[in-house]
Amino acid sequence: MSQQFLLICECGNEFPILPRHAGESRDCKCGTTIVVPTLRDIRRLPRYEGESAQPDDKKKDAGKSGKKWTIGHGIAFSLGVPIILLSLGWFGYNAWERKRINTDAPTPDDILAASSGILASVDFDDLSLVDSYEQVWKPLRDLSIQTRPLPGYVARREYAAGLGKHMGIAAIAAGIGFLAVAWSLLSSRATFS
């Protein structure tokens, strides 16, 4: 333990100080602010022979120890905030995009209208068996041989499901950002002064 010295106010109050307090200031009960001398001048002060330190001094030192804003806190905070903002923006965009997508299956009328006009242009009441084969079933059969793309509503459902996964990833990223910021603030209990 280092040697303590007495800093005496004009009113007579005494403050035990340590060499590490050089250059700091102390407030006396009389209202005067006393500046602690430099390290060289502290050695010229009378030595303190009482207890190790005043309770006020212990409280000041206890508040300083272990609760400092470190570079790790700064990195966690400065990475956490952009992660939160970017992931919430990503989540919001995906939610907006997902809401815009129509994933309803087509109605039978929609299917009839999309059948390349084959069924829409035929009057079934006036067709013979051979004509119905030639005008309806043969063109439909030829259509089925071609490679068909995925129906639009199925593709939109898959896209919406993918957006849901992106929203989940964004929520996890936002949670990580919130944890980084919370850790940096709570573990340091920093006062930004």
List the helices and strands and how they pair.
Elements: E1 5-8, E2 14-17, E3 25-27, E4 33-35, H1 39-42, H2 55-64, H3 71-100, H4 108-113, H5 129-145, H6 152-188
Antiparallel strand pairs: 1-2, 3-4
Helix pairs in contact: 3-6
Summarize the structure.
The chain contains six helices and four strands. The chain has 193 residues and is mainly α.
Radius of gyration: 40 Å
The count of domains is 2
SS elements, strand count: 4
Secondary-structure element string:
EEEEHHHHHH
Q: What structural class results from the helix and strand content?
A: mainly alpha
General shape: rod-shaped
Alpha plus pi helix count:
6
Percent helix among the residues?
A: 40-55%
The largest β sheet comes out as: 2 strands, antiparallel
Strand proportion, as a percent range, falls in 5-15%
- pLDDT < 50 runs, ≥5 residues: 61-65
Strand order of the largest sheet: 1-2
The averaged pLDDT comes out at 79
Query: How far do the termini sit from each other?
Result: 29 Å
